[in-house]
Amino acid sequence: MLASEIPVLTVLCGADSPPDMAAVESDAVVRYTDARGLPDALRGADALFVYDFLSTAVPGAWPAADRLRWLHIAAAGVDPVLFPELQESDVVLTNSRGVFDDAIAEYVLGVVLAFAKDFARSLDLQRATTWRHRESERIAGRQVLVVGTGPIGRAIARLLRAAGMQVSGSGRRARTGDPDFGVVRDSGELPQYLGEFDYVVAVAPLTAQTKGMFGAEAFAAMKPSARFVNVGRGELVVTAELVAALRAGEIAGAALDVFETEPLPPDSPLWTMPGVLVSPHMSGDFSGWRRTLVEVFTANFRRWRAGEPLHNVVDKRLGYVPSQPQGAAG
Amino acid sequence: MLASEIPVLTVLCGADSPPDMAAVESDAVVRYTDARGLPDALRGADALFVYDFLSTAVPGAWPAADRLRWLHIAAAGVDPVLFPELQESDVVLTNSRGVFDDAIAEYVLGVVLAFAKDFARSLDLQRATTWRHRESERIAGRQVLVVGTGPIGRAIARLLRAAGMQVSGSGRRARTGDPDFGVVRDSGELPQYLGEFDYVVAVAPLTAQTKGMFGAEAFAAMKPSARFVNVGRGELVVTAELVAALRAGEIAGAALDVFETEPLPPDSPLWTMPGVLVSPHMSGDFSGWRRTLVEVFTANFRRWRAGEPLHNVVDKRLGYVPSQPQGAAG
Questions:
Q1: Are residues B271 and B199 in the same domain?
Q2: In terms of domains, do B22 and B46 share one?
Q3: Which residues of chain A form beta strands (DSSP E)?
Q4: Does A138 touch chain B (CB under 8 A)?
């Protein structure tokens, strides 16, 4: 296709359509579709914008992608579109790295403070019109492990450090002198050092290596007073083993924004377990996030049309955007 | 009394007695009493340690204080012992300045994040087994006014700034270039600038000047989206006017740790109002606080016995410990 030709862009939408697409529409034939119409809409398309970022429809529609060169997803985690046919193809995959970092960091600091200050109990007591004084915990000086050293993990580390906590990282490569984490431990040896931490925050990308990394062995290694926070992906956790660890008192609590099955099924014991905070996959979704996601796509679309290198190109083997060529994001 | 004489120390206790008093007991005749026994225990006493810091028993027992030279209160706010006869006497009043600062700052950051991230609604939805995604707010860049520029207000300002918020102060004397606040506005002109802020935090000492400073006029001046946080004293607020402002939508919410009447009466509308977080006067009470309070007293007791100047001497006219001779704590 010559730059002068008008490309075909398919946009996979869910309940909501992306706002502010006028700039893109002036320079592409845009086909909006839902999951059902995706195969037809993919045929002859040059680019695919996965705006419905939790949709699992792309792998099934892939045989229709006869001309696709670029796939952009309105998310940081690319796991819904990371399947072998895409990985082996020449299609360039980009994500929305950076949009959610600081909002998620604020969310994590919020749940850490909610645990330390016993906010859930305060609210339950308030709902019961009951005045009951308790002592609470400090967060200053407490040890936090952030598992996942990409941009979201880094934003979490910076904010928690600013609030006085002691933060380390866990990633693919052990190292010292990291600007945000100081020390980064080897995520392959997680159970060996999990016992040192008061808070363990999961924010690793979901890959074959990270799937189920928080299971019985990991929880058994944590302090009985530890709180586990998941703002990454539900599949990082073996849910049944988390439930068992909470029941056995192997850890003290969990704040979970993501789940193996979303929405969390009504019969999940997590809804009602003491010490568990459930939120509906919203930690990064600050007011204005959808507009920002479209801005990120639009900026990349302009680069694509101008023949410039795209931003946020995912390493399809790793499953995320490497921070540096040597893979320091791991 | 000569230094070689053993002084009589009266300790006013509530339900709990102070821990770790052995060092003091080895150098004083210590009389532990509750409110009922206070007059008898005060007669002939050289010093009074008000460990039950919310007790209102001291003014009524004051005629029995025939020999008292020093009164120490296990609190930052001295309002329960600030009555005319004490103010006019030569009795030195000291407080527990510094013990609660950082814990209260963490609590305030926690409720700010609880508002921004809609935690109360998340917990209510969790209790109802309901998955409902919402957008949430960022805290970075939001404007905070801290009313009260003593050590607790300063700790709040430092922590909220570290978390990315824009913080100003309000105190007795307008000024710029404050190390913690940057700009400090004149608390006498509060309604003129309250409308600039997303969060208003009350942490002023309770004095004749500050009593009821948050009333109808102040709330009407705030943004409809503003949240009010009180970690100072309940009497800083005209409760009925706060309730009316919340009902009228003049402000969006309130996190209240202190109340005009404590415990908060069961029939108070505050328990059940949307947007209101009630906690039972616990914001500073980190695990170990009682031990720390006794340590602060013990250190001052040693100074007193050695004839050294006491720490945390309250200006009984102002009602708090001035930060600097010129009264910059105001």
A1: yes
A2: yes
A3: 8-12, 29-33, 47-50, 70-73, 92-94, 143-147, 166-171, 175-178, 182-186, 199-202, 227-230, 253-256, 276-278
A4: yes
Domain encompassing residue A94: 8-99+287-306
Residue A322 located in a structural domain: no
Q: Is the residue at A317 inside a domain?
A: no
Low-confidence ranges of chain B (pLDDT < 50): 325-330
Give how far A206 is from chain B: nearest CA, Å.
22
Same-domain status, A83 and A30 = yes
pLDDT at A324: 57
Is B310 inside a domain boundary?
no
Chain A residues within an 8 Å CB radius of B135: 282, 285-289
- Whether the Cβ atoms of residue B47 and residue B71 lie closer than 8 Å to each other: yes
Interchain contact, A286 vs B114, CB within 8 Å: no
Q: In this complex, do A110 and B107 lie within 8 Å of one another by their Cβ atoms?
A: no
Residues B73 and B178 in one domain: no
ipTM of the predicted structure? Answer: 0.93
Sign of CA dihedral B216, B222, B227, B231: negative
Q: What is the 3-state secondary structure (H, E, C) of B117-133?
A: CCHHHHHHHHHCCCCCC
Task: Decide if B113 and A117 are in contact by the 8 Å CB cutoff.
Answer: no
Structure confidence at residue B54 (pLDDT) = 87
B123–A120 CB contact, under 8 Å: yes
- At B246, list the tokens: 């919340």
CATH number at residue A72: 3.40.50.720
Q: Would residue A327 count as lying in a domain?
A: no
* Mean pLDDT by groups of 10 residues along chain A of 330 residues: 80 92 97 97 98 94 98 96 96 96 98 98 98 97 98 98 98 96 97 98 96 98 98 98 98 98 98 98 96 97 97 96 56
From the list A31, A154, A185, A233, the catalytic residue is A233
The 3-class secondary structure across A102-120, one letter per residue, is HHHHHHHHHHHHHHHCCHH
Question: Which chain B residue shows the shortest CA-CA distance from A290?
Answer: B135
B209 touches chain A (CB under 8 A): no
Q: Show which of residues 258-317 on chain A sit within 8 Å of chain B, judged by CB atoms.
A: 262-264, 266, 271-272, 277-283, 285-289
The total domain count for chain A is: 2
Same domain assignment for residues B219 and B249: yes
One domain for residues B226 and B292:
no
Please state whether the peptide bond connecting residue A263 to the residue before it is cis, i.e. omega within 30 degrees of 0. yes
Regarding whether A298 and A223 lie in a shared domain, the answer is no
- Here the tokens at position A265 are 């099924």
Say yes or no: B198 and B70 in one domain.
Answer: no
Closest Cβ opposite residue B271 in set A110, A129, A159: A129
Pick from B123, B136, B280: CB nearest A132: B280
- Looking at residue A16, what is its pLDDT? 87
